[in-house]
Design goal:
4 helices, 77% helix, single chain, mainly alpha
Length: 109
C-alpha cells in the first residue's frame, strides 16, 4: 500500500459533527467561500480575455491561500469539537488517527 493510499479519505464519511457551527461561524465561512468563488470566476474571465499568465497565477495563489485559511478554520473546529469529544468519550485513538490522515492530506498540496 502506498503512502497516498493510506491518506485517501472518503468524500462522505456519514459521520455527524459533535458540535454544530453557530450561525455566525457559518456566515463567516460561507462569506469566505463566496469570495473564493468570485475569485475563480474572475480567473475564468482572465483566461477568456487572454490575460498575462503571471497575473492569472497570482490570482490562483490568492485562491489557494484563501482556501487553506478556510480549511484550517474547519480543521480547528473539528479538532476542538469532534476530536476532543471523542477523546473524552474514550474513542480518541481512532479520531486522532483520522485527524492525522486529514491533516496529512490537507497539507500535501
Amino acid at each position: 500500500m502506498s503512502v497516498d493510499d493510506k491518506l485517501t479519505i472518503p468524500l462522505q464519511s456519514g459521520k455527524i459533527p459533535v458540535k454544530m457551527r453557530t450561525e455566525d461561524e457559518k456566515k463567516l465561512l460561507i462569506q469566505r467561500l463566496k469570495r473564493v468563488e468570485g475569485q475563480v470566476r474572475g480567473i475564468q474571465k482572465m483566461v477568456d480575455e487572454d490575460r498575462y499568465c503571471v497575473d492569472i497565477l497570482v490570482q490562483i495563489s490568492a485562491i489557494n491561500a484563501a482556501l487553506k485559511r478556510a480549511g484550517f478554520q474547519i480543521l480547528e473546529d473539528h479538532t476542538k469539537g469532534c476530536v476532543s469529544q471523542a477523546v473524552e468519550d474514550g474513542n480518541g485513538e481512532a479520531s486522532i488517527e483520522e485527524l492525522m490522515k486529514v491533516f496529512e492530506q490537507f497539507t500535501k498540496s
